[in-house]
Specification:
alpha+beta, four-stranded mixed β-sheet, Arc Repressor Mutant, subunit A
């Protein structure tokens, strides 16, 4: 099954319209990082930042996305289906990558790491 077909199914099940913008949004959110609305807006080349926010809010409301709050940063968004993980915030470009969590606790926790993202380490 293609990623587009999988996303079509998710959107249909949630009762949301299957638009090209939402498909592009899902494709970016599947890249293994947490995105700000501004980052998504820049990558999607969407004409209107408000459209990006509306899509994010609709997907959040339907449980397809989760909002990630990292200290001192604006809200970020990622796919809700992603298994438990930590976030590495790049000290150079401020990108937030999803990384495996080194803590194997059953209790709920949030781990935020500082360092360099994959792109800045190259």
């Amino acid at each position: 099954m293609t990623a587009e077909a999988k996303n079509n199914g998710k959107l249909a099940k949630a009762g949301l319209r299957r638009t090209a913008g939402r498909h592009r949004l899902f494709a970016l959110l599947d890249e293994g990082r947490a995105w700000t609305a501004r980052e998504l807006h820049a990558r999607l080349r969407e004409k209107n930042l408000a459209t990006v926010y509306r899509n994010l809010q609709a997907l959040l409301k339907k449980g397809l996305l989760t909002e990630v709050s990292l200290r001192g940063h604006e809200a970020r968004y990622e796919l809700a289906e992603r298994p438990h993980h930590a976030h590495l915030v790049c000290g150079k470009c401020r990108r937030a990558e999803c990384v495996p969590c080194p803590i194997r606790l059953t209790a709920s926790h949030h781990l935020e790491l500082d360092g360099l993202c994959t792109a800045c380490r190259r």
